[in-house]
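forwarding from the other thread:

> can someone predict this with iron/sulfur cluster?

sure thing
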Amino acid sequence: MRVVPSICTFCGVGCGLGLRVEDGRVIGVEPQPGHPVSQGQLCAKGWASSFAIDPHGRLTQPLIKEHGQFRPASWDEALDLVADGLRSALDERGPSGVGVISCARATNEDNYAAQKFARAVLKSNNIDHCARICHSPSVAGLSRTLGSGAMSNSIADIDQADLILVVGADVTENHAMIGARMLRAQARGATLVVVDPRKTRLARLADIHLQLRLGSNIALLNGLLQIILANGWENAAFLAERCADIAPLRRHLAALSLEQCSAQCGIGVAELERVAYLFSQAKAAFTAYGMGITQFQSGTNNVIALSNLVLACGQIGRPGTGINPLRGQNNVQGACDMGCLPNVYPGYQEASDPAVRAKFAAAWGTEVAQAPGLTSLGMMHAAQQGELRALLIMGEDPLQTDPDQNQVARAFAALDFLVVVELSLTATAQQADVVLPAAAFAEKDGTFTNCERRVQRIRQAIAPPGLARSDWQILGELAARLGYAGMAWRDAEALFAEITALTPSFSAMSYPALEAKHGLQWPCDAEHPRGSPILHRQRFPIGRARLLAVSQVDVDELPDAEYPFAFTTQRLHFHYGCGSMTRKSPLLERETPAGLLFIHPMDAAELGLAQHQGVRVRSRRGFLETRIELTDDLPRGTLSMPYHFIEAPCNRLTNDAQDPISKMPELKACAVALQPLPPGQAPSRAAGASEVTHASL
Ligand code: SF4
């Protein structure tokens, strides 16, 4: 047996693990000793990583759909067909008629290749990925206030904080090793404050839990800042030295009624005053947030309101402080950094800037995309309107994870051609015309970037199953068939060298440099050859930080007589994303029953519902059937579902009302109605759902 160092492929914490390899198979994993993030530990998902790449149930050869059925095909036949499909769409509609959805689970090298394929080969800026539905408001909001949308500090800074503020993040479930670190910090004396409409595990253990009303983040954050400014608790020196004029925000907040803020968020004035004092007077306050901030139609303004609070108190640019979006997927930071967004090239170089386009056109030796691109949800709308004709999806399952699934299904049905590059036959892959088998993280070389901007090496430990290949190799072959030879890299290291040559914030990185130090945090350039654990120490990328006035916006769909319950979504510790990887683990699968609708016991009693009774849940967009789970984690009148389960896909219910700035859909809030099924009647599985468990693959 040998142990190959790698990085956990689930969440954005980026824990170091070792893959135990025997007879060409990964037979288990172990924590990487001395790793700066995971410190020799893993969470339950990390320990189950080997199941995710088990060859059982993996795609091993290309599949072509004929008469509604898949048949195996050779790579040549499948790639020729894909090239024809893309070429036809280009001939019919031009670059706006094609799109690429890349993958926050794939490597930086794969993602760089995806955006290069879109821009240099298809000549289209229609390139996006699932950051659209997790942290696009962080990129939009923090870019406006600070000039950078990434975590400002490092995970290790939690150890130096004397106050930790967690807003809208279920950290022990979703970023378990960060949650554990926060609890250790609390045990040594740090004050832990959690803002969340649910009593999460961390909220129950916190010193203070502000259980705000769903979707009232801005009211709460504006209330806190109004108190701070009214009492002179702000950091005047920091504001004078590092920030643009706060006067407009001060006037905006002074005009608000504190009582109204309190009424809107459901937190008493005295409690707001207590937290405002503690946060502003802390020597070092570490602020972390998640999708309870971003997944609203006011997502960007929610981020700005939090940024205002942090800036006004000077809780940034020092050890133990900072504003820190907890990125969900293992490489969602990297997919953004690599330019898998319609508006930016790698390193956030603006696609609208002619100089940037000229730089990449010269480096790539070809014309690049000129017109602005569409977001992933924009592509779905364009498909339904007949404007987008062909779509390449790499490792994502929007049919299960995007809002309003019926709309996604209609978009797929309207396309002329859908190709999916995947590990297994997900719900989305089942809709494809061609499915191409991809290599998993243990089967290829490359890099992942965790939520603290740490670029880390992964290494090939085993061969891919059957004919599966790395995404970048597949895209390179397709590019060649479409007449572009500039994607035929020798190996992943050569591809990474192209990334560093064209991305200023990566310019001092190389595979040997990454290997020497458990990765490097960007910016890593001539000025910062050892990387940058803390951003904004002396200056912000935009010079002076901006504090911007924002106002509370209600959620798009409030409960009413027809749909009387507020509905939100959540994740569970033992599963990940659409479940296509974690549900292959019998150890994880046995921990949580599939489906589940969480409901307060008193709401259930009012409807005459018993524990685990079947219910039909209905929103304006669709319905599903599942079982209830009683919990007082939720306030009365609010229901919640995890989105890991294809049997009861909660995104049939969710609302795609969008944040006008980032185009983030309001996944965290809509209104639903509940109808009990007769006692003893089992919920019916969602139509079209097929098992994604290890048992059936
Ligand atoms: Fe993997 Fe995240 Fe768990 Fe670490 S915390 S082991 S990265 S799932």
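The chain is about 30% helix and 15% strand. thats all i got for now
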